[in-house]
Design a protein that fits this description.
The chain has 501 residues and is of the alpha+beta class. Helices cover 28% and strands 29% of the residues. The structure holds manganese (II) ion. Manganese (II) ion binds next to loops.
């Protein structure tokens, strides 16, 4: 459930936590939130944890300029409310602390089940923007305190590469409405890295490796502030012939990675997940992401933690990511089904929502499916299905009518996180459950499916810019009545929904 900031007033002892290795957006978000709570008479703590204390020059400058009262902690008694900002509780880059109640305010891709109290706007450029909107909803003007407005403005600036990556109107609102203090922004912009860090970056770039076959670049740096990795990977991506890249540093506790992509064939957050799979975690945005491979987990898996082994491992993993993945554009040609088996739907009850109930025809909405977000243009022909595991996906009316019959019974949602779609224009979140009705699968012509033994990215006819990822164990499926309609069915959903014809 979304929450309002004023609803937090019922908690006594509140701690705001941002992700480990905080960046400017995380600091600004926590700072503005603490400021708000203080206005309302609540003294909250603002903390971060992790292996490293902040040492990047612009962040130290930021803390000094705005007098940000942020504490680096290793241990902490459980507060009544732990509010994570610019990250999601339970993520690998958020040190775990116990708390009575958890709340999340974030702008990254949803990476796990969210607590009841959460506001996540994955299509916003910064968490500062989310905070700005929540404050505005409370009637609070950030310009009442120039330090707060300047900090939020700087958070957005740094998270969107100097506003270049702004696409959401909410971000534009913050950019245009924040009455920032110009000289402070100039100071911060011009203390982005230290002299030592410039030399580290320079040394690292001299040893850059490139793959012409897979158009990626890899750079290793000496240990430095993880934010420097991001600066280097941004630079690397600007190189002609580099469509994705990896920058990493080997620390004594693990390997920090920073990943970028400028091709629609690769989601950076997913590549970061792939690179760190089994040894830690990764995530972030479609174009920018990061992660950590933990030393103890690598050693446990028998990977010796020395420089050459790690370098070799990451290089191979990058090649595997690019090489061992099939790419398919659905809707272009009939799929050859000679190696597929025929399945029909079990008699299962699912939910559906007519898209026209959600928004005006012609508006674009973002549907958060298990395999990724897709953007759909609303019209009377679009039906949104709420599947057996609570998964959500669109279907056109003709296929819907062939596959389902309507039921009078009320719809009961099987999942825990109530599905929403997001109006791509306004950023408004629309709950689907109040609009949902029940329907029951018809056996119908069924599908042809085969179990995947490799990774595949499918661009469906719904959204040519964002792919669905299928991994080993999932199913690649083709509608029996339309051999061009190829898509992915997750392993657990498949087991519950289909039986051999
Ligand atoms: Mn951020």
């Amino acid at each position: 459930m979304e929450f309002k900031l004023s609803e937090l007033m019922e908690y006594e002892n509140i701690v705001i936590q941002c992700h480990d290795n905080p960046d400017a957006d995380a600091l600004a978000s926590g700072y503005a939130l603490k400021w708000y709570l203080k206005l309302k008479g609540k003294d909250a703590r603002f903390i971060y944890s992790g292996k490293l204390e902040i040492r990047k020059s612009n962040l130290l400058k930021m803390i000094e300029l705005f007098e940000i009262d942020v504490e680096y902690v290793k241990e902490m008694p459980a507060p009544d409310l732990l509010l994570t900002v610019d990250c999601q509780y339970g993520e690998s880059n958020v040190t775990h602390f116990d708390a009575e109640k958890i709340a999340v305010i974030d702008h990254h891709q949803v990476s796990r089940e969210l607590p009841e109290l959460s506001v996540v706007r994955s299509n916003y450029g910064s968490c500062s923007t989310v905070i700005y909107e929540l404050l505005r909803n409370e009637g609070i003007d950030i310009n009442d305190d120039p330090k707060v407005s300047t900090a939020l403005y700087y958070g957005l600036l740094t998270d969107t590469s100097n506003f270049v990556e702004i696409s959401h109107p909410a971000d534009r609102d913050l950019r245009d409405n924040a009455g920032f203090v110009n000289f402070q922004i100039t100071t911060l912009r011009n203390s982005n890295i230290s002299k030592d860090e410039l030399l580290i970056a320079g040394d690292a770039l001299k040893e850059a490796e490139f793959s012409d076959t897979y158009t990626f670049g890899i750079v290793e740096t000496r240990p430095c502030d993880p934010n420097i990795l991001g600066i280097i990977s941004d630079m690397l991506l600007e190189v002609e012939g580099v469509d994705s890249c990896l920058v990493y540093t080997i620390f004594d506790f693990g390997v920090k990675i920073s990943v970028r992509s400028c091709t629609k064939l690769i989601k950076a957050n997913e590549m970061a997940e792939f690179l760190s799979d089994g040894y830690g975690g990764g995530g972030g945005h479609i174009s920018k992401a990061g992660g950590l491979l933990k030393k103890d987990m690598m050693k446990r898996a028998g990977i010796s933690y020395d420089h050459d082994t790690i370098t070799e491992y990451l290089r191979n993993r990058m090649i595997e990511y690019h090489r061992d993945c099939e790419i398919l554009y659905a809707g272009k040609a009939d799929e050859d089904i000679s190696e597929y088996e025929h399945y029909v739907k079990k008699d299962v009850k699912v939910g559906y929502v007519e898209a026209q109930k959600i928004a005006e025809p012609g508006r674009k909405v973002c549907i958060r499916t298990l395999e990724g977000d897709i953007e759909v243009s609303v019209d009377t022909d679009v039906i949104i299905i709420l599947g057996i595991e609570g998964e959500v996906y669109p279907m056109n009316r003709a296929k819907f009518e062939k596959s389902y019959r309507l039921s009078d019974e009320p719809y009961i949602f099987p999942g825990e996180y109530p599905p929403v779609v997001i109006d791509s224009g306004s950023g408004e979140r629309i709950e689907l459950l109040p609009l949902a009705s029940s329907c029951i699968t018809k056996g119908g012509a069924g599908i042809y499916a085969k179990k995947l033994d490799h990774r595949i990215k499918i661009f469906t006819t719904w959204d040519p810019d964002r792919y669905f990822l299928g991994v080993e164990g999932d199913y690649k499926a083709v509608r029996a009545d339309d051999h061009k309609d190829v898509y992915i069915i997750a392993a657990d959903v498949f087991a519950k929904s289909y039986t051999k014809a």
